[in-house]
């Protein structure tokens, strides 16, 4: 294992929680936080058992808590049985929340539709009955390729109700990526829409599904259920395709939830790693839901009258834990937004917070940074032009938030009175890991603060030994936790070697570099692998390289990230063509062609920002591409590092044109 550990300037400003916030908080004061940590330290199993009993409704109680006998394939509450959808919906029909609004859906065009817990429950039951009538059971897996909608959440919940393992694919991924996931997960059901509406435009989804399923292995999918969202024309396969409204029609409003074991895979979500192929991160039912619910209540310090808004898409893990599951299990009222933050203008988020009286707002640093820019360009979209007084808590997720953006968010959106919870976690962790508790933890802009109670994190060297304060190292999680990844779908070896390398004492290796300050606060320094974070979306550099070299014109490609003030990182591709290095218009034309190709192979979010052509790529004598040096070139800097290991040091001078 090797890493480049950069040092960062540590912020010195500290924001202790206001007395008013401490008073009513779920976890009130640092003593309460420490008491919970101590409880978990003293009796790890007992701590988790207590929460699992208090927070979940079991159909058969568990007698075992953590089973480590087949580590790292840990299991939690293994002999217990429950249903996730019952825990998210039915429980609220019995506890007085039946007529509470569960979802406030706002469409791209501003149209608002609401569903109470009773209505959402009925909708989920009708869809589940429809799936059942088509013959689906808990032995099946479903791919969900839907836009943000009540239907997307209801479909996930309907799958959970029947024990169908779902795998949501973000609508920004291409037919090729969709095909890869259908085949890898072995999906027999696919749920999609005719199109998705974004910024006033209809972007087709069903046609991508048709393309994906026409490829080899795509015929494993027996039925494609289509939600009519945009009313656009779609091609129709009478044998295979059915409308969502047709399968729901005439179905009863109740559907008995299927009992599943605590370890039953609730979902598989694909994410990028250090090899070309995305990996299917498999999550459990009970352990996952417990942590999604508990962290919702702890970290967002939720109250019954909150209006919660997480701006993520259900295609990412944030949309799973803090839209589709944790927030519903916690009985919150939440916003589900179909559109984009810049349509009809960059004041959309602030306008929605004002109109819906949002009290908790959870978004990504990249959104904040782009809205700062937009507010500078058009003062009418500045958050201070809106009444944001309903807000009491702000959150950040997906990438490090730079202190400047933090302070802007704090002052201009939170009016200097809302704590910001900077939450560090991953697809693999299922829920927050490092995050402040708003009624307890003093905040430092740019730090995701401390591990949550029950979570044991560390910063270690190559041998798993703790590094000194202020030194960078590998971020690890030392003890298993209930929401942890259970498997990489269909790839035991990748799970074991990727996440639990033997030299690290059995710790879970996150893949991030971090350092701790004198107060034990964590500062995330970036990934240790070639995973890129583009607008908070996780993409694999190797995945994009594989797509590029699959193009007829390309001989070799290397992809790196360069820092970008708005999107966090921007993709830079260094390309060696089979033909000589192109220049001018010809280079522009090839670059455009390659961008479209990547959009088609992976998805539009993976398009390289800069393309640089050269005669060859910098390699070590053993033939390894030196991405470290390419990063320097990508940033427009002169290479001052030692290049003696390079086969041909002059190779770095050739990438002059940026297309
Ligand atoms: O590098 C870390 C970064 O996002 C990675 C996980 O990406 P993904 O699985 O897509 O999940 C994103 C949403 C949880 C991490 O390895 N990351 C996530 N949150 C933060 C972060 N980096 C710094 N600060 C954060 N708060």
Short description:
The protein is built from 18 helices and 30 strands. It has 659 residues and is an alpha/beta fold.
Textual characterization of the structure:
By secondary structure, this protein is of the alpha/beta class. It has a domain at 529-650: ANL, C-terminal domain (GMP Synthetase, Chain A, domain 3, 2-Layer Sandwich). It contains 18 helices and 30 strands. Strands 5-4-17-16-18-19-20 form a 7-stranded mixed sheet, with helices on both faces. Helix 13 links the parallel strand 18 (360-363) and strand 19. Helix 4 (84-94) packs across helix 6, helix 4 packs parallel to helix 11 and helix 5 crosses helix 6 (150-162). The longest helix has 18 residues, at 584-601. It is globular, with a radius of gyration of 24 Å. The protein starts with 18 loop residues before the first helix and ends in a 25-residue tail after the last helix. Mean pLDDT is 94; it is low at 1-9.
Which CATH-level-2 architecture of the domain at 529-650?
2-Layer Sandwich
Q: Kindly identify the CATH topology of the domain at 529-650.
A: GMP Synthetase, Chain A, domain 3
Distance between the termini: 34 Å
Per CATH, the class of the domain at 529-650 reads Alpha Beta
Low-confidence stretches: 1-9
Helices and strands: which structural class?
A: alpha/beta
Q: What overall form do the CA principal axes indicate?
A: globular
Distinct compounds present: adenosine-5'-monophosphate-propyl ester
Percent of residues in helices comes to 25-40%
Average pLDDT metric: 94
């Amino acid at each position: 294992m090797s890493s480049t550990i950069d040092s960062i300037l540590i912020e010195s400003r500290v924001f202790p929680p206001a007395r008013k916030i401490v008073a009513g908080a779920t976890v009130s004061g640092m003593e309460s936080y420490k008491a919970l940590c101590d409880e978990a330290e003293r009796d790890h199993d007992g701590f988790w058992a207590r929460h699992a009993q208090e927070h979940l409704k079991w159909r058969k109680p568990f007698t075992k808590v953590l089973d480590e006998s087949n580590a790292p394939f840990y299991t939690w509450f293994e002999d217990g049985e429950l249903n996730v959808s019952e825990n998210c919906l039915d429980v609220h029909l019995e506890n007085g929340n039946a007529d509470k609004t569960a979802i406030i859906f706002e469409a791209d065009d501003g149209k608002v539709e609401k569903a109470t817990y009773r209505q959402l429950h009925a909708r989920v039951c009708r869809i589940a009955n429809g799936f059942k009538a088509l013959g689906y059971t808990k032995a099946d897996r479903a791919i969900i390729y839907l836009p943000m909608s009540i239907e997307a959440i209801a479909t996930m919940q309907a799958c959970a109700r029947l024990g169908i393992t779902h795998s949501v694919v973000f609508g920004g991924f291409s037919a090729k990526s969709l095909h890869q996931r259908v085949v890898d997960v072995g999906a027999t059901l696919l749920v999609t829409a005719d199109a998705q509406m974004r910024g006033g435009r209809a972007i087709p989804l069903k046609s991508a599904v048709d393309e994906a399923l026409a490829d080899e292995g795509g015929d494993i999918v027996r039925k494609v259920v289509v939600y009519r969202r945009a009313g656009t024309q779609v091609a129709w396969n009478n044998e295979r395709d059915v409308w969502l409204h047709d399968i729901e029609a005439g179905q009863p409003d109740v559907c008995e939830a299927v009992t599943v074991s605590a370890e039953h895979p609730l979902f598989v979500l694909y994410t990028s790693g250090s090899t070309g192929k995305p990996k299917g991160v498999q999550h459990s039912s009970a352990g996952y839901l417990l942590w999604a619910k508990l962290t919702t209540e702890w970290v967002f310090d939720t109250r019954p009258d909150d209006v919660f808004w997480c701006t993520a898409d259900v295609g990412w893990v944030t949309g799973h834990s803090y839209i589709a599951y944790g927030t519903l299990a916690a009985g919150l009222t939440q916003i589900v937004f179909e559109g984009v933050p810049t349509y009809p203008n960059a004041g959309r988020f602030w306008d929605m917070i004002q109109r819906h009286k949002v009290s908790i707002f959870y978004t990504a640093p990249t959104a904040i940074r782009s809205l700062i820019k937009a507010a500078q360009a058009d003062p009418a979209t500045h958050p201070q032009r809106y009444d944001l007084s309903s807000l009491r808590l702000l959150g950040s997720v997906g990438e490090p938030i730079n202190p400047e953006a933090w302070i802007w968010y704090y002052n201009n959106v939170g009016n200097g009175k809302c704590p910001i919870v900077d939450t560090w976690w991953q697809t693999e962790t299922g829920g927050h890991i490092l995050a402040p508790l708003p009624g307890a933890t003093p905040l430092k802009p740019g730090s995701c603060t401390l591990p949550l109670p029950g979570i044991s994190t560390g910063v270690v060297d190559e041998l798993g030994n703790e590094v000194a304060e202020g030194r960078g190292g590998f971020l690890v999680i030392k003890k298993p936790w209930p929401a942890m990844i259970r498997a990489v779908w269909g790839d035991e070896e990748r799970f074991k070697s990727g996440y639990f390398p033997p030299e690290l004492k059995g710790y879970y290796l996150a893949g991030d570099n971090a350092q701790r300050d004198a107060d034990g606060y964590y500062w995330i320094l970036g990934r240790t692998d070639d995973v890129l974070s583009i607008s908070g979306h996780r993409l694999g550099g190797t995945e994009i390289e594989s797509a590029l070299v699959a193009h007829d014109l390309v001989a070799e490609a290397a992809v790196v990230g360069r820092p970008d003030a708005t999107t966090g990182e921007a993709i830079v591709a260094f390309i060696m063509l089979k033909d000589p290095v192109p220049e001018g218009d010809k280079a522009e034309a090839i670059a455009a062609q390659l961008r479209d190709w990547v959009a088609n192979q992976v998805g539009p979010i993976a398009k390289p920002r800069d393309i640089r052509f050269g005669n060859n790529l910098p390699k070590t004598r053993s033939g390894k591409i030196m991405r470290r040096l390419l990063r320097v070139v990508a940033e427009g800097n002169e290479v001052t590092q030692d290049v003696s290991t390079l086969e041909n040091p002059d190779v770095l001078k050739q990438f002059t044109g940026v297309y």
